[in-house]
User: Which sequence fits this backbone?
């Protein structure tokens, strides 16, 4: 057990969420454990709306309304003033967006360095790139300690910022108990709701460049063409690809690829779905596919594993570190290889059963309880 003496610790919880978004979930799962493990700490949560009004915390938890979005100018002055006013002994920035003039003691979590490798179309102006570099450089170099969510991200941070590895602690994320296989009747209900057939591939996440969706769509098209050309297997004749997540106007190539390949009847983009529906889609899917070119951690494959759905994923970045032997790997830049390995999981029943069992074993290594305890030890290493 860790003991602090009359300590005031602030958490940048502006991404706080109980949905299945990575950083929001990270805030939600850790803080609720902090409050139980260390009720003697004076916890300060810095929140934006609507989360400030939407979520209720124990009476001894102080929440402060910031209303300064990430990547905004108000983050640099409005949030800064609130931090300076509170005079916390330690602040945990759960994303790299720390105000660059904040000089208090702080810890930063780096979930990934995606923007450094795949800046995306929103980072096409010089001032956005300059601002990103200034903010992340301060968050990394001036932090008392850094937390990364994978060894792969730790290595990226060391290389990009020339940081001593001793300053960085890798703490894996956990996985929620709500992910599970659901009864057939509930799977059928969610398929009926979204007009999905009995066999489908599932992708969940955003549509950014590093998510590699156009190649996934092309690989899916190859599977369909090969199935129709050879006349089988019969259960794959009406295979579908279901893509969740909000459509991103910056990446029209997703819809364009579907149209170019004439896959409008086989590929469904169903948008953001409720957590209840997403849980059942994980369970009902024939295969969950994770085609990313880069990931700092990658929760969705673990969520699918715990739902007892076989996973096909990229052999790149942090994904092998996190998924171990629990998935069927492919080269994310090779459409043929992607298609072959996904198709294997659709037709090779022994391999499916093997990966389902290995996946169930793999997810046992990921615990939010352990993540919270290890994070508190990082705080202790700074405060002592």
Assistant:
């Amino acid at each position: 057990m860790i003991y602090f003496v009359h300590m005031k610790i602030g958490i940048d919880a502006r991404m706080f969420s109980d949905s299945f978004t990575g950083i929001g979930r990270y805030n939600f799962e850790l803080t609720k454990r902090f409050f139980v493990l260390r009720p003697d700490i004076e916890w300060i949560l810095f929140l934006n709306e609507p989360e400030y009004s939407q979520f209720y915390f124990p009476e001894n938890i102080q929440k402060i309304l910031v209303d300064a979005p990430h990547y905004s100018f108000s983050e640099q002055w409005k949030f800064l003033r609130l931090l300076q006013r509170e005079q916390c002994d330690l602040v945990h920035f759960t994303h790299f967006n720390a105000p660059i003039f904040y000089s208090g003691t702080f810890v930063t979590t780096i979930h990934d360095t995606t923007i450094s490798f795949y800046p995306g179309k929103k980072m096409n102006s010089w001032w956005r790139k300059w601002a990103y570099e200034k903010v992340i450089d301060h968050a990394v170099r001036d932090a008392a300690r850094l937390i990364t969510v994978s060894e792969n991200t730790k290595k990226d941070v060391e290389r990009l910022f020339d940081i001593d590895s001793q300053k960085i602690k890798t703490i894996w994320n956990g996985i929620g108990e709500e992910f599970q296989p659901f009864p057939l009747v509930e799977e059928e209900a969610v398929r009926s709701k979204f007009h999905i057939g009995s066999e489908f591939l599932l992708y969940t996440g955003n549509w950014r460049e590093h998510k590699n969706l156009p190649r996934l769509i092309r690989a899916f098209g190859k599977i369909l063409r090969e199935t129709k050309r050879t006349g089988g297997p019969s259960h794959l004749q009406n295979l579908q690809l279901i893509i969740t997540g909000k459509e991103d106007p910056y990446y029209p190539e997703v819809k364009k690829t579907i149209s170019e390949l004439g896959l409008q009847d086989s590929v469904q983009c169903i948008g953001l779905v409720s957590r209840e529906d997403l849980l059942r889609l994980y369970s009902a899917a024939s295969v969950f596919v994770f085609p990313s070119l880069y990931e700092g951690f990658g929760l969705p494959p673990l969520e699918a594993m715990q739902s007892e759905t076989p996973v096909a994923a990229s052999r790149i970045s942090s994904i092998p570190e996190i998924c171990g032997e629990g998935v069927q790997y492919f080269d994310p830049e090779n459409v043929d290889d992607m298609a072959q390995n996904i198709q294997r999981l659709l037709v090779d029943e022994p391999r499916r059963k093997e990966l389902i069992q290995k996946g169930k074993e793999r997810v046992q290594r990921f615990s939010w309880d352990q993540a919270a305890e290890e994070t508190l030890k990082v705080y202790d290493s700074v405060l002592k």
Summary: The first strand starts at residue 8 and ends at 12. Residues 74 and 192 are 45 Å apart (CA to CA). The chain has two domains: 8-174+367-383, 184-365.
